[in-house]
Amino acid sequence: MQQIFSIALGLLAAIVPTISAASAGCGKSSMSSGTKSMTINGKNRQYIVQVPANYNSNTPYKLIFGYHWRDGTMNNVAPGYYGLRDLAKETAIFIAPQGIGNGWANNGGEDVTFTDQMVDTIKNSLCVDEKQIFATGWSYGGAMSYSLACSRPNVFRAVAVISGAQLSGCSGGNTPVPYLGIHGVVDSVLNINLGRQLRDKFLQLNGCQSKNAPEPGAGSGTHIKTTYSCRAGYPVWWIAHSGDHVPDPRDSNGQYWAPGETWSFFTQAIGNTASAANLLDERNSTLPLVD
């Protein structure tokens, strides 16, 4: 019986890898919204923090990083954060980092180090659910988000890459991470093949089943979403749209869908505890038959 219980606990850990984990900053109120600075490798780095208006220091919040595009700035990302802040309805802490030279070359891993320090600072100053830390960005910002999925898979629960490519490196890249890719079929800056390559890496890492991913015709004013069957808790979504290199793809009817899909993915990526518990119950009924 004890062996069966141990197996059950192991199954639960595999099915629900992200039970809420409160950070050291819970119970404190030591940081407010605004522009912050820190020194990384002798360089002054800045970022914008957006604390929920109704912030409760005893409530663990999602932490979402929004990385800007090439020649963009943190001020371009804040306060909207790729449309996610409105959808979060004050349930998340948002960070908009500033890249060196308005980019994310990540030379010597310095932008990953910058991110590490931001994560540590926020977790120690505010109440963060350490199992709900996410990254997103467009273009160079997407490349940086992909880099973090590779190098910090145990920190970032999921990433959403909009029109990205491998521009900021991929140190590591051996661990599954929930992955959402959004790309235009006629992207004239970063060809859609570059986005497919990022997707395919996580299809492999996440143990996804092979599946045809249809894409819309150029200029059709539509988008097509493909969801893959992957290892439990590690989904991969791919959304191809009919447009060019844009952060806010829209269909011909004017629908602006990317923020909603990203928010839905970040919510789904952490898994459904009730569904996982039901699945565990089903597996428990057969546990005596396990060798």
From TrEMBL:
> Which superkingdom?
Eukaryota
Task: Quote one Gene Ontology molecular function term.
Answer: feruloyl esterase activity
Q: Which GO terms describe its cellular component?
A: extracellular region
UniProt subcellular location = Secreted
**What keywords sit in the KW lines?**
Carbohydrate metabolism, Hydrolase, Polysaccharide degradation, Secreted, Signal, Xylan degradation
Q: Where is the Peptidase S9 prolyl oligopeptidase catalytic domain?
A: 111-161
Q: Which residues form the signal peptide?
A: 1-21
The family database entries (InterPro entries) matched by this protein are listed as: AB_hydrolase_fold, FaeB/C/D, Peptidase_S9_cat
> Quick one: where is this thing mainly located?
secreted
* Protein's GO biological process: proteolysis; xylan catabolic process
Question: What is catalyzed by this enzyme?
Answer: feruloyl-polysaccharide + H2O = ferulate + polysaccharide
Keyword Secreted appears in the UniProt entry:
yes
> Which EC numbers does the record give?
3.1.1.73
A Pfam family this chain is assigned to: Peptidase_S9
Q: Which family does it belong to?
A: Belongs to the faeC family.
Q: What does this protein do?
A: Involved in degradation of plant cell walls. Hydrolyzes the feruloyl-arabinose ester bond in arabinoxylans, and the feruloyl-galactose ester bond in pectin. Active against paranitrophenyl-acetate, methyl ferulate and wheat arabinoxylan.
Q: Know the name of this protein? A: Feruloyl esterase C
Q: Which organism is it from?
A: Xylaria bambusicola
